[in-house]
Amino acid sequence: MTHSLVIHPEAESELNAIYDYISERTGPEFAWAYIRGVRDYLYRLSEFPERGSIRDANVNGLRLIGYRKRLSIAFVVRENNLIILGFFYAGRNINPSVLRERNLGFDGP
Fold it and tell me: What is the count of structural domains for the chain?
């Protein structure tokens, strides 16, 4: 069963910032190919979302999965939804309180 893909608005902003970062360093074509690859990866993940490392100490059901060694993707599975809570590129610290706040709309207080 394929889950509906939901990307938190702040996570979407993070993905846009990653595009800008890559584009400034390698050009827009490479950046767009990278982002397109991320989005394709997310759609494949929505088919089998029970992957990644479970890190649910701060957010119930939180999972982390890597993409091409440089990007960590934080997500949860709620009913029939795969909810992307954040993108963390090139060693950027994953902030548990930010993810907890983003999850509130999907999990309750």
Answer: 1
Backbone dihedral angles phi then psi of residue 50, each to the nearest 5 degrees = -85, 50
Sheet containing 71-78, strands listed edge to edge, beginning at the edge strand earlier in sequence: 4-7, 81-89, 71-78, 63-67, 53-54
Say yes or no to pLDDT of 109 above 50: no
Tokens matching residue 96? 């548990």
pLDDT tens string 9-58: 999 999 999 999 999 999 999 999 999 999 999 999 999 998 889 988 78
Q: Any idea what the CATH number is for the domain that residue 70 is in?
A: 3.30.2310.20
* Helix or strand holding residue 89 (H, E): strand 81-89
Q: For residue 14, give its domain range.
A: 4-107
